[in-house]
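General statements about sequence and structure are easier to judge against a single worked case. For one protein, we set the task of working out the structure tokens from the amino acid sequence alone. This step matters because it turns folding into a mapping between discrete strings. The amino acid sequence and the backbone structure tokens for this protein are reproduced below.
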Amino acid sequence: MPLCCIDDYEVEANRRLLPSAAAYYSSGSCGEETLQLNKQAFQRLRIRPRVLRNVVDRDLSVQVLGRKVHVPIGVAAAAMQKMAHPDGECANARAVGSVGSIYQLSTVSTCSIEEVAEAAPNTIKWFQLYLLKDRDLSEKLIKRAAKAGFTAVVLTVDASTWGVRRA
């Protein structure tokens, strides 16, 4: 049976993942208020169809920070991806690059900055950074990302502490 909607993907993920990994990926922190608000926001989105138009020369590409991106949807940072697949963030970065989009590597990744850079040399890569109390470590992470070819830093400013998670 084809996967048609996000609920189908969640069912399939729960079938394939270890229960602990499925619980981690499907949960949020504290009372999961932000998780619920995000789900509600996505439910309000609609694709507005355009009919009776010439679609022979369609182009979804956009310019982002001076780079052409073929698909106007990037992949945001997600932690601990080796819980879902042995290649973790490396596999995700390769897949994103294959469609010409942007990949964000999490500060809390299970593959190193250098491993992701080597695995996906042609992918546009950005590094997501939690500004750590240890500013020297934050600076070292930024320098490693720059040296590895990451072209932007995505600074997470709304997480001053690690969230308390149920999973």
